[in-house]
Amino acid sequence: MGANAWNQALSGWLEVGHDGTPAAGGHRVNPAPRDVDTLAVLARAAGAGDARAFRAWVEAVTPTVYRLAFRMLRSSADAEDVVQETMVRAWQNLGGMQDPQASLAWVCRVARNVATDRARSRGRGAMGHSVPLDGDDARDWAHRLTDPGADPEQLAHDAGARAFLRSVMDALPENHRLVLMMVDVDGASAPEVAAALDIPVGTVDSRLHRAREALGKKIRGLKARRGWRFW
Amino acid sequence: MDEQERMRRLVRLADDPVDIPANLAARVAATALATPRAPQAAPSLLGPLTYLGARLAAGAALCAALMGITVRAQAPVPNAPSAAQARSAGASSTDSPAAAWLHWTEQVEDPSAAWLPGTLSGTASEGASESGAR
Q: If you write DSSP's letter for every residue of chain B in order, what string do you get?
């Protein structure tokens, strides 16, 4: 891509402030240039040492990277640390990146590695924020959540129901849980999740389907148990 | 509402969307830019030259091998008999070179012997005797 394309990409980006508000005299445009071509232009220029391009590229990919790290580690402080370390590595290694078109997938791969190392160093016990699920309350929630007549919106306003649901989701396989959280909770698009997890878009859809299925099955299973312990 | 839709709505309400900290990108970018960057390896001509050299060497070896085969294949090119050889074999001086050649080869028991080094200048009988001796 030539210098014109690069200038257009960067000037389009610079028309808005870092918080997405229009700069003086500029009209509001998409604050995160997430389209592949723009990211590729920014990544290539950043790899060549352009600091402005690097800032723009970081601004574009940070929401996805932070969301991924947060969903993996479930801690905002840890997620911020992961983003910081990831971007330092990105600045040092963007120049050697083989395919600038895949820079989002590349940086998410780096972030996953950093987050995995961090989770490992913390130990498995600290990974989740699960609420212990035993006793009649949890079974009652399982009954109520599987009741076809109950309104999910109504139920989910209850803190107990939310805690129960989060705990059940924590028990899902990691790759299912991440897709479920990123799509259904964070509202990320399938291509964004695909890039973040380095999987095809079709796999995102199928994992999402299976994760919802597994969640329902798990809740029904909890309802059926008598005197069960979740763990 | 089917099970998929029900679960989608439950999950959506189970947790809050991730809230991206304000100015996170600007902060991490500034910190990253402050870190020393490893110098990128300058493009080197050594690699391409080495590759080119290896290809040239391989090409030269192939050429040498082909030339050897060609030289061997072309080695024994028969010469026409000299006028003296043809006359001694009974050819007429009016015969065409081709006729003289045929006539000579008919008289010589082993014409190929006449092509061996040292025999080209000899007579047909000499060539025949040498080939017979072998």
A: --HHHHHHHHHHHHSPPPPPPTTHHHHHHHHHHHSPPPPPPPP-SHHHHHHHHHHHHHHHHHHHHHHHHHHHHHS--PPPPPHHHHHHTT--TTS-HHHHHHHHHHH-S-HHHHTSTTTTTS-HHHHHHHHHH-
